[in-house]
Here is the input.
Amino acid sequence: TPFGAEGGFFMKKRLSLLFAAVLAVVAALAVIGCTDDETEGTLDVTLTVECLALVENPDAVADSYKAVVPEDGYFFNAAPLKAKENESLYDFVIRVCRAENLPVVAQDGYISSIGNLSDAATTGAYWGGWTFTVNGKTPMEGTKWLSASQVTLKAGDAVSFSYTIGALGEY
Here is the structure.
């Protein structure tokens, strides 16, 4: 009958919509699960991100940046965190900063701004920027400094990012 044919059509359409809704819920749960995996790792590391040079030399801080310099000079102070297996220092710092809602600007393996402090945070008489060490040493390959994207973290690593300043003409 025509009614039966329509009923079959509508039943198939309802089943298709129900199937699509179930798939959407499963996909949403999978995304939530992925987000959790992306914020946690398995390797114990510590992270320090500091701008003590700016706290100790307030005359070097450009007026428009004074409000973003933490009073104690630390964004992270030897914070115990988890890195992922084979995670680069670059990816780790970006992931951790974003998870903590700390602004970070990075491109081509270079982290140019953390906590809204970039090289422009200093006055015209100073230069400034972010440098890093791993276990107290600047990572090198022979005589070449490595970028953060070239450093793979290992369990027990102590990472430190420091906002470094100097007077123009010093070097």
The helical segments are 2-39, 52-56, 89-99.
